[in-house]
Amino acid sequence: MVLGTTGLNKKDQGFMSEQRVDAVIVGAGFAGMYALHRLVKENYHPIVFETGDNVGGTWYWNRYPGARCDIQSMEYSYTFDEDLQQDWNWSEKYAPQPEILRYANYVADRFELRQHINFNTRVLTARYDEIHQEWLVRTDQNKTYRTKFCIMATGCLSSTNLPKFKGVDSFEGESFHTGQWPHSPVDFNSKRIGIIGTGSSAIQSIPIIAQSCEHLTVFQRTANYSIPAHNEPLDKQYATSIKNSYPAFRAENREMFAAFGAHQSRWEDSIFDVDDEVRLARFEKKWQEGGLGFTSAFGDTGADKQANDIAAEFVRNKIRAAVNDSEVAELLCPDQVLGCKRVCVDSHYFETYNKPNVNLVNVKEHPVEEITPEGLIQNGQHYKFDMIIYATGFDAMTGSLLKIDIEGKNGLSLQEKWHAGPRTYLGLCSSGFPNLFTVSGPGSPSVLSNMIITIEQHVNWIIDCMTHLRDSKLSTIEALEDAENDWVDLTNEIANGTLFPTCNSWYLGANVPGKPRIFMPFVGGFPTYAEICADVAEQNYRGFELTA
Ligand code: FAD
Ligand code: N01
């Protein structure tokens, strides 16, 4: 339907027509796809915009070698459709990126989602028209859409962070960011390669790149904790046993703090209640199980620094045992709190430093000075490379959202409102921005959880809320400022009771120069969070204003 331009402000004038839709969804990753599926099922007419040329989000963009999930495949997948979870078969314990991307495509086809998705389309602005209580969403295809609801499924780790190195554009070899990896194969054979960063992306890719390149130099600013994945082909018997009672397994996982790991061993007692022998045996058992579950060997390693020190030293000793050169091993030993930055999960990462074609350069005291046409300069030394890989992470949690020019009531932009850090109620809405929802936004468990599970919970809450408004003949929902302030205070209070804020992590925005330092995810655990959200809805959307 083509309408006039009533309600457009000056910045939007010049656009000849508006298309009306019931809801705009930005992003076609797992969040956008599920939001679309649910809206269509509820007889809405939504439209999705996606910058990429296909679905999958994270798994579309992050095609670097070795990319895979760190939550086990049987858990890192949609739960909303029993037939889907029965029909899909994972091949490995931790699914590799190509397989997760195939899964996303399979879901898109199976639920006929593509017809509603505009690919190769970036949303540039979203402005609230207060007179008509509607959003005007403009894309880079010079089109404007008028809608009652906006669902920002823009992703928490979807805006790459490329540090402003001097001369970054001057390099004459090949250069790639892990988060925007090319779609065609990258050949490392006989190449001298430099990689900057030692977070999860680097830790996954370094062992594979090292297998075929001539030489790999790793530039490390902060050493990271990493636990072996012990990845292997998925045990068919195990998969069948899970499928035999998949809904119950999913329900058990939803009761877990981070919405995964119900079938893994875990203890909640204090590390100080057991002797050295029991401690070591328990850590060893968790190490052999592998993966993120290592941190659930004791109940107090996340909040008690002394307890954490003991767990951290166990990991450091594993690194010392894996790396032959003791100087390199010490350089690879992290000194921050274990878990303060996201713990990585690897396959033969530390052992890779025993290869003759790999070396490690510490850039903590002497940062990368300059990228040159031939390589880079660090600590006065000119390293010559055929390829530079930036594994430098993301402008996490807020990056993609704040790249969109979002203007709410009274002309206030989200950028202005969040200048000192994001402020949301439940991580779902921000006051002054009616009917605009964020999925896995700051203030929600988000990246501290099994994200497909939390995405489903968010989307269900949002669509149920929209349907409630429709059924009750209500027009808008907006977070109240008091409720939002209380939520921000609660989120900070819980985070401050943990060891999370003790280091420079992307959870705090500390990896991006100039970004406000505030702990962004909700650390109270998924079950608590989901219960609060359900209570809020049950109590007629407590803390929100609903208007006719
Ligand atoms: P995304 O998948 O990031 O999708 C967002 C989409 O929005 C993107 O495709 C982007 O192009 C699009 N978009 C953004 N802005 C705009 C705009 N203005 N206009 C149009 N389109 C836009 N989580 C886990 O729980 N377990 C894991 O094992 C795990 N592994 C990960 C591995 C990697 C390498 C990374 C980077 C993240 C991982 N995560 C993991 C987190 C992962 O991001 C989530 O699990 C999940 O895939 C997020 O889905 P999403 O739909 O919310 O966001
Ligand atoms: O990014 P990161 P990532 N000079 O921010 C370094 C998910 N994920 O893409 O720590 C030199 O972790 C930076 O150093 P420092 C997961 O949630 C999951 O690896 O800031 N170095 C760091 O070493 C993860 O946490 C998987 O001191 C610079 C690195 O670059 C999140 O995505 C796999 C620098 C960035 O690490 C992000 O992971 C991949 C500079 N100027 C991703 N700037 C799984 O395993 C930055 N660095 C499932």
Question: Any overview of this molecule?
Answer:
The chain is α/β, with parallel strands linked by helices. The chain has helices spanning 30-41, 58-61, 82-87, 97-110, 200-212, 236-244, 246-254, 276-289, 305-322, 326-332, 399-403, 414-417, 451-471, 481-496, 526-538; strands at residues 2-3, 18-26, 46-49, 117-118, 123-129, 134-139, 144-152, 174-177, 192-196, 215-220, 226-228, 344-346, 358-362, 368-371, 375-378, 381-384, 387-390, 405-407, 436-438, 476-479, 544-547. It has a domain at 10-159 and 396-473 and 525-541: FAD/NAD(P)-binding domain. The strands form five sheets. Strands 1, 2, 3, 4, 5, 6, 7, 18 and 19 form a nine-stranded mixed beta sheet that branches. It has a five-stranded parallel beta sheet with strand order 8-17-9-10-13, with helices on one face. It has a three-stranded antiparallel beta sheet with strand order 14-15-16, with no helix packed on it. The chain is globular and about 70 Å long. The chain binds flavin-adenine dinucleotide and 3-acetylpyridine adenine dinucleotide (N01). The site of 3-acetylpyridine adenine dinucleotide has 28 residues, from helix 5.
